[in-house]
Amino acid sequence: MESEDLVELPACLRGMRRYALDGALLVFDRKTGVTAICDGEETRHLRRRVPRVVQFAITNACNLGCGFCSRDVDEPSAWTVDSAVEILRDLSRAGVLEVAFGGGEPFVFRGFEELLWRLQDETELAVSVTTNGTRLDDALLDRIDGAYAQLRVSAYDDNDLPGTIRRLAARGARFGINWLLTPARLPRLEDELIALVELGCRDVLLLAYNGDDRSLHLAPASWAAAADRVARLARALSSRVELKLDICWGHRMAGVPQLFGVEACAAGSDFVVISSDRELRPCSFHDVALPIATAADVLRVWSAERERLASPASRPGCARSTDYGYARLRLPVVRS
Ligand code: SF4
Questions:
Q1: Is any atom of ligand 1 closer than 6 Å to the C-beta of 320?
Q2: Each residue of 309-336: pLDDT tens digit?
């Protein structure tokens, strides 16, 4: 029994999974995603023992060819359904709460639907999937109904996002949209987000671009105005949609209200990435990549390599770099 299991909880929280933070206790319901943090004298001694979330790039393969994607889509995955279940079952037993599949397009991985059901039946993990949505027809959604906690659909211009949102909303699926905010999309910010809400989307995550294409980075001169527009939009739509920023924005959206949860990047600590070639990375943009094969390897590397896992990614856009890596792209240098 772990020390977090000994903390007394009110009856309404007792059925939830427990996860020790440093000095506090997080409790979590895998079906609804409901999370609560208990913080007091009785939790002061607790220490984080394992990562809370594993992001799993189960495959690099994809059925789309987006220009901004830097993955080698021809590189075969080193995972099978059995080996993925084994490592995730052991991580679940060790205390990990969630697995978030991405890639690549998870639904092109052979046996992915079986993998979802086995994780549902054989682990306590909450399973989410980030997908381009192109395979989410009614037949597939029927087959995986009950096998996932959340779907996240990436917004592209050519993946029939409206049709996918209508299908997901009509069946009451738990889902959100990942929306990459680029200079080309900034003028359409309000129109596109309001359209998503009208279609039935209640959760939008605004992503910052990480990579070498300088045309996809918002110029520092536009940050303040963009932050102001995002904040206004969030206030205007607050009763209809949860609008969130991804962690890589750092302080580039400094004027956005706290309800967005802008905080220090927890890559390599709160969450880690397992890649399709069996490496552990702090995040999917990071060049630190350490070989792993088993859950024990994951936990050993996570404990022993804290410093490397907490380092900045070299790819431009990383909020851990003092200038977001912009000097390399010859964008105006900024201090975060
Ligand atoms: S390490 Fe950098 S690139 Fe990776 S998630 Fe954190 S801020 Fe983003």
A1: yes
A2: 999 999 999 999 989 999 888 888 776 5
